[in-house]
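Predict the 3D structure for this chain.
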Amino acid sequence: MDSDSENKKGERIQKFLASRGIGSRREVERWICDGKLSINGKKVLPGQRILGNEHIKLDGITIHNARVSHHTASPKVLLYHKPTGEICSRHDESNRPSVFASLPKLSQERWVMVGRLDLNSSGLLLFTTDGSLAARLMHPRHAIIREYIVRVYGHVNDETTRILLAGVLLDDGPARFDSLKPIGGEGTNRWYRVSLKEGRNKEVRRLWESQGLQVSRLIRSAYGPITLDRQLRPGHYRFADRAQIKALYHVAADKNKMEQS
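Done. Predicted structure below.
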């Protein structure tokens, strides 16, 4: 059988990924045009078909690898309490400590980070060996809530709260908090619990700064159904239990697909 006949047997990558909850077909087409998708180390071509046993990466992160998943155990999920001063990258030219240095070593798999926290932020970071799950948990399509505890310097009044909940225009588009509640503090240094459904770069800090306020502490306290365990000390990790892993797969499931089934 020639390669043309074999390619016709496959499924268009847009349909393949969309059916698994990894972006819509239109989003996948944009990723292809932007050169963000690769199959077995090569950039994806428009209209390319796949058989389902390929190694697919989005922005360098594995989102599908049938060969690996067939031979390995169930996907692992790790809860890590990131301290301030650690970077969310594997390598750094300035030789700053990386969150990956604190994780347990894997023989055949690779830890994929779910979202990021900047150098001066701390709190919950999730890692998984399932790249597809990581991609879905981060994708705006699934609108998964991230919760933060924030110490803010400045005067926050009712109008400030209203604006931040209604939405402001940042450099990379509109943004808003889904919830904002004061939880303590004195004077001009007060603590707030906020949540939002996306994870753009330093979005929480930039929202407060848009109102002339400064964030002096930022702690991620929850990501979707997973909350930061108070017993988990900074710089330490623990494996998620079965119930937590099941909850993550549930919130990352394709809602349209679930409704049709």
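Residues 1-7, 68-72, 256-261 have pLDDT under 50 and may be disordered.
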